[in-house]
């Protein structure tokens, strides 16, 4: 089997996984219309990612609605990945993540505008869902200013990374969350969104 054939098979499998994840997020109202994007690492050397295709309804994705990209987020082969593929690739390079979730939630936009310096959380049982052994911790969810330049946005994200918080809010936009695999990234995204909804409800 050639490397190209193996990559194609891996890409199709990854596409099926990402389609299922996207359908779940869309059912929550976190990926309305064509908003949001997901990625999954296929190889580390060289770095290759499967990224959801641009302009597709995230509640209706199929296994073929995914694009292979390189370590900079550029397409390798046919298709056009999300415009934010470069940021997914940068998150992977910085954190060693195996999957990245980007969703547009109301709570993330509200809290990004309300707390542009970051959103602190302390003493909450749900923090265990981010890998903390106990609720007796204090963590901050970083907030960064938005930009259409993925290089600039990546610089802001890199500068804002916080230990123990696998997520960043992009003000006026949404959240990026990552994990070792799609399942962990999904669980963490759900935890982060719960925290944001709690913060928004507190006013």
Automatic annotation (TrEMBL):
Cofactors, names only: Zn(2+)
Cross-referenced SMART domains: Aldolase_II
InterPro entries: Aldolase_II/adducin_N, Aldolase_II/adducin_N_sf, MethylthioRu-1-P_deHdtase_MtnB
Statement: the UniProt record of this protein carries the keyword Amino-acid biosynthesis: yes
Catalysis performed (reactions): 5-(methylsulfanyl)-D-ribulose 1-phosphate = 5-methylsulfanyl-2,3-dioxopentyl phosphate + H2O
Database matches in Gene3D superfamilies: Class II aldolase/adducin N-terminal domain
Record pathway: Amino-acid biosynthesis; L-methionine biosynthesis via salvage pathway; L-methionine from S-methyl-5-thio-alpha-D-ribose 1-phosphate: step 2/6
Cofactor: binding details: Binds 1 zinc ion per subunit.
Its EC number(s): 4.2.1.109
Molecular function in Gene Ontology: methylthioribulose 1-phosphate dehydratase activity
Annotated residues for binding of Zn(2+): 102, 104
Role noted for this protein: Catalyzes the dehydration of methylthioribulose-1-phosphate (MTRu-1-P) into 2,3-diketo-5-methylthiopentyl-1-phosphate (DK-MTP-1-P).
Matches recorded under NCBIfam families: salvage_mtnB
Family: Belongs to the aldolase class II family. MtnB subfamily.
Protein's UniProt name: Methylthioribulose-1-phosphate dehydratase
């Amino acid at each position: 089997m050639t490397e190209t054939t193996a990559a194609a098979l891996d890409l199709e499998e990854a596409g099926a996984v990402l389609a299922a994840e996207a359908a779940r997020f869309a059912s929550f109202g976190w990926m309305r219309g064509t908003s949001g994007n997901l990625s999954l690492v296929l190889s580390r050397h060289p770095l290759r990612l499967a990224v959801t295709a641009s302009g597709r309804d995230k509640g209706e994705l199929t296994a073929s609605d995914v694009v292979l990209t390189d370590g900079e987020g550029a397409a390798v082969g046919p298709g056009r990945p999300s415009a934010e593929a470069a940021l997914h690739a940068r998150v992977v390079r910085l954190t060693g993540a195996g999957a990245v979730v980007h969703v547009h939630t109301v709570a993330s936009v509200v809290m990004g505008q309300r707390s542009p310096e970051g959103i602190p959380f302390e003493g909450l049982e749900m923090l265990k869902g981010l890998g903390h052994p106990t609720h007796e911790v204090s963590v901050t969810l970083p907030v960064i200013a938005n930009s259409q330049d993925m290089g600039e946005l990546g610089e802001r994200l890199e500068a804002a990374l916080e230990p123990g918080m696998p997520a960043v809010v992009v003000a006026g936009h949404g959240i990026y969350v990552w994990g070792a695999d799609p399942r962990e990234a999904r669980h963490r995204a759900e935890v982060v969104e719960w925290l944001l909804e709690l913060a928004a409800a507190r006013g």
